[in-house]
Amino acid sequence: MEKQSFEELMEDLEIIELKKGRIFEGKVFEIDNDGIWVALEGSPGDVFVTQDELLRSKRDYKIGDLITIKITKVNDAEGLHLASEKKAVWQKLFNDIKEGENYKAVFKERVKNGYTVLIEGVVKAFLPGSLSLLKIYEDMPSEEVGVKVISKKGRNIVVSRKDYIEEKIEVFFGNYKKGMLVEGIVEEVKDFGAFVRLSDYVTAFLPKNEVSWNSRMDLKEFLKIGKKIKAIIVDIDEKDKKINLSIKQLKDDPWETIEVKYPIDSVVNGTVTKIFPFGFTVEIEEGIEGLVHESQIFWGRRGRIEDVVKVGDVVKVKVLDIDKENRKMNLSYKLAMGDPWENIEEKYNEGIVVKGTVEKILENGAIIKLEEGVTGFLHVSELSWNFIDNISNYLKEGSNVKVKILSVDKDNRKMRLSIRKALENPWKKVIREVQPGDIVKGKIAKFVDKGAIVLVDKHNVEAYLPSSKASFDSKNVREIFEIGEEVEVKVLEINLENENKRGNMVVSAVNLENFEGKEAEDILKDLEK
């Protein structure tokens, strides 16, 4: 074996000698209450690192972890050597820091004329207030920020946040050009447009008229804060550092080929977007919207547009005309649906019973809607087999009813309807079951000039009680009975001239055992008057 020279022996001893300030790597071999023990590589010694000199909590270290430390104290007498992980990392990082390079830093405290920051959370540096991009009243950021080292003299390092960001902005504007596709996050939405963050340091503007080909689009509904979007750069000003974006230019202008896609007289599907007093608008596709005028909604009498369509409904419409230059389109709802009166006899024959909805109450009856564009007239006399004084007490607008079709006038778009004839005539049963002289029960329904009307139980028909037959003591029926009062009466006369008409019944509330038939005839004549 070759003999080492004296100089080589001294060099080997230097390698393994523990000296204050030297940096070693070592493995954690024990963890106690105050810190960790580290066995150094290339040296027979062990060192102790207190919690204060560790980068992390001692609970985060495991036996066998390899860490870098710097010797801070050598005690040969006691054999206890102290070291610091923080100082080792600081030394290495400090040595690596160079002027003109960028680093991450955290704010430590506010000092005179600026701030103290820690580069990579370890090396202290000074950030002048003029280069911090912070107003005097603003709080220090809690998260990491980017900084550029603008001076390093001895242990004094000066950094700039402003220079760091300006460099990043320059790089961005150097890499992006007009016409490029970019992706960003919506930061703020205004009535005139939106601001979109393209990077941590560059925000672009998206004008409202560049969001969609649909000019009536609700900007705040379409763009939500935090939404990720793709857009095209339509204008970039490198000098003033401004960028304008467009989403709609990702698609071709739909009006350029509108005559090809939606020729006149074609029937298309669309979504109802708005309802006006004079009609409603329909969006056929994004950017293409047309108007359905009220004259193109109803085949018959004009009704409430809201009863026909609602915002959000998908409807069929027919294209009437296109004004490409002014981006306008007229549509027809009724033509797309077809004229319901064209083949009316196929659905609504005279004599059939159908369902309908009360559309409007009139003084002499009601308009009943059978379907869109098809209505009929219900005269007050066709409401009930009983007499109706006030139609509003019997029907309500919007209520559903069953009606019998009495007649259909296709040429004039008219139809006569009946509710009472949709039901069996109750007088047919009354005639079979009730005879003159029978006693029936009922309630006083209303008063008339010469008596009262009694609603007969079981049969739901009206009988006439003359005042003269209400009591022997009084000729004023209102002094004897009250509305709703239950009564027991004797049938004086009952007849049904025609099963399609109402019958007549005259009753008496007094003892009529000796009542003459001639008097009943007189009472009926009075009733007819």
TrEMBL record:
Q: Where is the S1 motif domain?
A: 21-86, 179-248, 265-334, 351-420, 437-510
What function does the entry list? Answer: Binds mRNA; thus facilitating recognition of the initiation point. It is needed to translate mRNA with a short Shine-Dalgarno (SD) purine-rich sequence.
This chain's source organism reads: Defluviitoga tunisiensis
BP-aspect Gene Ontology terms: translation
- Name this polypeptide is given: 30S ribosomal protein S1
InterPro entries (alphabetical): NA-bd_OB-fold, Ribos_protein_bS1-like, Ribosomal_protein_S1-like, S1_domain
State the GO CC annotations: cytosolic small ribosomal subunit
Entry's family note: Belongs to the bacterial ribosomal protein bS1 family.
**Entry keywords, A to Z:** Ribonucleoprotein, Ribosomal protein
Which chain positions lie within coiled-coil regions?
none
* Molecular-function GO term, any one: mRNA binding
PROSITE patterns, from UniProt? S1 (PS50126)
UniProt-listed SMART domains = S1
Annotated CDD domains: S1_like
